[in-house]
Amino acid sequence: MLITKAPRGTNDILPEDIPKWLYVEDVIRKLCFEFGYKEIRTPVFEHTELFERGVGDTTDVVQKEMYTFLDKGGRSITLRPEGTASAARAFLEHGLFNQPLPVKLYYNISCYRYEKPQAGRLREFHQFGVEAYGSQSPQMDAEIILLCMTLFKRLGISDLTLKINSIGCKDCRHKYNELLKEYLRDNLDRLCETCNIRFEKNPLRILDCKNKSCNEITEGAPKLLDHICPSCKEHFESTKKYLDELKIAYAIDPWIVRGLDYYTKTVFEVKTGKSGAQSTVCGGGRYDGLIEELGGPQMGGIGFAVGIERLLDLMKDKQIEFPKSRPLDIFIANAGKDADFEAARLVQNLRENGFWAEKDLSEKSLKAQMKYADKLNARFSLVLGDDEIKTGQAVLKNMKTGEKINVSLKVLDMLYKVLKEE
Ligand code: HAM
Predict the structure, then answer these.
(1) pTM assigned to the model
(2) Which helix (H) or strand (E) holds 70?
(3) In Å, what is the CA distance from 49 to each residue of 33, 46, 62, 131, 402?
(4) Which terminus of the chain is less hemmed in, N or C, by CB atoms within 10 Å?
(5) Phi and psi angles of residue 42, each rounded to the nearest 5 degrees, phi first
(6) How far apart are the CA of 252 and the centre of ligand 1, in A?
(7) Which amino acid residue places its CA nearest to atom 17 of ligand 1?
(8) Which residue puts its alpha carbon closest to atom 11 of ligand 1?
(9) How confident is the model over 368-418, as pLDDT tens digits?
(10) Strand 330-334 with 380-384, pairing
C-alpha cells in the first residue's frame, strides 16, 4: 500500500514526459546562448528577508504564499517563490556588477507558492527566467521582449498576445498612489481586509487583488499610464518604437501592474487565449530600484519569467509535435552462460560507441527476451547462443522489416575499434 501521495499542487514529471522538458530546455539554452545570456543557479531556499525586501511585504506572494520556516538554527528561511530576487542577490554577493554591463543571466528553476491549486496554478512549478542588469535604455527592454517572443516562435506557439504597460518610476507612483487613494476613499468598506491594509501601505497592490468585489471598485480608477512623468513617458514611447522596428506585435494594457513590488517603467505579460490561472504564460518588466534596495549600486534591471508547466500545457493544447526521442538501437538476446558474458561485452562496446544497447538482466527465456525487445521497440536484435559463440557468427535482425543478416562478432569488434579511434 502506498503510504502517502505527493503533496497537493505538486507534480511528478514522469519519464514519458521528460523528453518534452528536455526539448524545451534545449531550445532555451540555444536561444540564451545566441542572445548572450549566461546561466546562473541559485539555492532553492533563501533568507526570508530577501523576498520581503525584494518582492515586497505587501504583495500576495509575500503575505500569503511563501513557504517559510525556521531552520534548526532558528533562522527564517523561505523556499524561493520566484527567481528575480535570488538572481539579484547572487549578482550582488559575487560582485558581478564589476563585469562588463549589461550582465545578462538566465535560469531554469523550481518555485514554490502556497496558492490554491487549479489548472495552471501549482504549489511547486518551474520557471525559465532571464535578468539583465546595468542598462536603463529602452533598447534593453526591447531585447528582453524580443528574446521572450522568439522563444514562443521557436517552439511553434503563435497567436499569443503580448501586453505591455508602463507603471512609471518611484515618483510617478508616489503621485499616482495619492490619486488612487482619493478615488478609493469612499469605497473602503467594500474593499477586502487585505486591501484596506494596502490602502495605507501600498495602494497600487489593490489593482491586482484577486478579490472580485475589489476588482469591481478599481474598474473605474484612474490609470497609472495616464499619469507617468515625461521621462517615463519618453522611455515607454521609445520602447514601443523599438518593438515596432523589430516587428513585435503588442497591445497596450494600462491595467497591468504585476503582482510584485520591484517593477518600474515597462511591464509586460504574454497572454494565451485560455481563461483563468492559465491565461498568463509569461510575466516580466523593468526593476530599476531593486539592486539598490538589496544594498547594491543604483542600476537598471529588467527580466521576465515563463511558467514551464503553462508553456507545456499550451503546446499540448495546440498539438505541437515534439521531436521523437531516440529509440533503443539494439537488444542482444542470449541463451546460455557463455553467450550471456559475450552479450554483456558486446552491449558495453556498443554503449562505449554511443549506441543505446540492452541485454537481458533478469534470466528471461530467449522467447521472453525477444518479446521484451519488441516491447522496448528495439530497432535491431542480435541472438547469441552456444553456436554463435563457437562460430563467431550471429544473426542481426531489423525488427521493423524483419530483414536478417549474418554478422561476424569479430567484425563488430573491429568496427568498434575503428569507431573508437576516429
Ligand atoms: P510572475 O508573473 O509571478 O513573475 O511569474 C511568472 C510566470 O510564472 C507566470 O506568468 C506563470 O507562467 C508562472 N507561474 C507563476 N505562478 C505560478 C503557479 N502558481 N503555478 C504555475 N505557474 C506559475 C515572476 O515570478 C517574476 N520573477 C518574473 C520576472 C523576472 N520579472 C522580472 N524578471
Answers:
(1) 0.94
(2) strand 68-70
(3) 33, 8, 10, 21, 65
(4) N
(5) -120, 165
(6) 20
(7) 121
(8) 307
(9) 999 999 999 999 999 999 899 999 999 999 999 999 999 998 877 776 666
(10) parallel
